[in-house]
Amino acid sequence: MSEKKTVSDFRYNSGEAKVSWAAIGEIIRQDEIIGLVKFLMAPAGGKEKEYDAQVEKVEAEIAQLVKVGKPAGKLSLGNQVQQLEAKAAKFLGAKYATFLTNCTAGFEIAHQYAGLKAGDEVIVPAITFIATIAYPLSVGAKVVLADVDPQTLNMDPKDVARKITPKTKVIMPVHIGGYPVDLDPIMKLAKEHDITVIEDGAHAFGGSYKGRMIGTIGHFGAFSFHEVKNITSLGEGGILCTNLDFGEEFGKSRFLGLDPSKQIQNWLYDVVAVKGKQGLFVPGNHSSTEVQALCLLAQMDRLETIIAKRKKAAEYLNGRLSQVDGIITPMLDDENIKSTYHLYLLQIDPQKVGADVQALKKKLQDRGVVQIPHFAPLYKFSVLRQLGYDTDAIQATCPVAEEAFNHRFTHLPLYDFTDDQLKYLADAVIDAVKELKAGK
Ligand SMILES: Cc1ncc(COP(=O)(O)O)c(C=O)c1O
After folding, report:
1. Last residue of a domain, which of 43, 68, 93?
2. The domain containing residue 330 runs over which residues?
3. What pLDDT score does 6 carry?
4. 1-20 burial, b for 16+ CB within 10 Å, e for fewer?
5. Element containing residue 239 per DSSP (H, E)
């Protein structure tokens, strides 16, 4: 009997061999590498000539490089992914972290662990991205929308308490814009009712709540590294973390139940159903790539600086905008809360401003200020009606979400602005609000 390998889904890890698995896949050629470089760094407007000259130089250098180098032997689930997972687990203070195609895949695995099935209920905030509820809807679970807190637009724990039933299997707090949800009351409810908590930390990698990293307070935490997030793994990517022993099964649960630690006769791995909280489940394929992991490893090193810059921009905006009566600025960090400043939550008091946020949004757009048009209350979308939900009745149970969406809030971006851009942004909001107050 061969020695038991650690459980891994790192298939085709043949190591050094005369004819290795890597030799079987088609290698990446020189022209394809140049294609990638050109894609990642396109010519800046008006600089096409210099760009072409520079690309020629890079091409010549890469031609030299291929003479002394060899193509990567593994592109999926290899050392880079392993390193990233170890680094993310350490950073988060989680026992386990797994790198996935996206955050939504993380939700899927966590729900599969919880044994979510048709008829079960999942409580989510009324305001979030549709990804939060895609898996529950796909298995016929009932999505229950909790109203939001008027100040943060995060899930209101008091409304969650009202909406728990014996069928509630999962609660999904969403840290909207990177601002942590008040998790203590939610974890208390979860404990009382034996509910699995899956934190939607799509915006909140690096945030913390009462000294613990976001994602590690619920039973699972999922993060997104999609291109719009604070850091990205080349456009798509996600991490799921947990402190449950179940995390040992992550390898299998992201990759079809393959279990290379066990061999069946005449074959190099077994395939197993994965043991969740209430029974077995059959996982999908959510494997991500080495190149994406490499990119995220590098970006993780910059995360602290990135969050600090965003925080500074938010502080500047708060400083300027809080001078204006009628503008409600978002909460910043305190000793318990460390946000990731993914988005800037701008709210107004429509009575003081004499108009609602729809008018403000238009004025900002006219001034060339792009807002994040992402977070409508979920009961507004056709999908729930199509699936037979009484969306009017749901809306009636979420008065804060409805009011905030129609009249009060928009999200501004918070990326690495130039000083001029940041000042322009604050001026634009202040001028627009002044105009609205003047009835213009
Ligand atoms: C709140 C929220 N949850 C989940 C997701 C899904 O993330 P991903 O695209 O990585 O699956 C997003 C993506 O924007 C999001 O905004």
Report:
1. 68
2. 302-437
3. 44
4. eeeeeeebbbbbeeeeeeee
5. strand 238-242
Same domain for 157 and 200? yes
Residue whose CB lies within 8 A of the most ligand 1 atoms, among 98, 111, 129, 203, for a mutation test: 129
CA-nearest of 216, 135, 234 to 173 is 216
- pTM here is 0.95
pLDDT of residue 56: 97
Q: Does residue 391 share a domain with residue 337?
A: yes
The pick from 100, 101, 103 for probing ligand 1's pocket by mutation, whose C-beta has the most ligand atoms within 8 angstroms, reads 103
pLDDT mean for each 10 residues of the chain (440 residues): 46 66 73 94 95 97 93 86 97 98 98 98 98 98 98 98 98 98 98 98 98 98 97 97 97 93 89 97 96 97 97 98 97 97 97 95 93 88 98 98 96 93 97 94
Ligand 1 is surrounded, with C-beta below 6 A, by 102-104, 128-129, 131-132, 174, 200, 202, 224, 226, 238
Same domain, 112 and 231: yes
9 in a domain, yes or no?
Answer: no
- Distance between Cα 317 and ligand 1 center (Å): 25
Domain count, the chain: 3
Q: Reduce the DSSP state of residue 199 to 3 states and report it.
A: strand
281 located within any domain: yes
Span from the CA of 104 to the centroid of ligand 1 (angstroms): 7
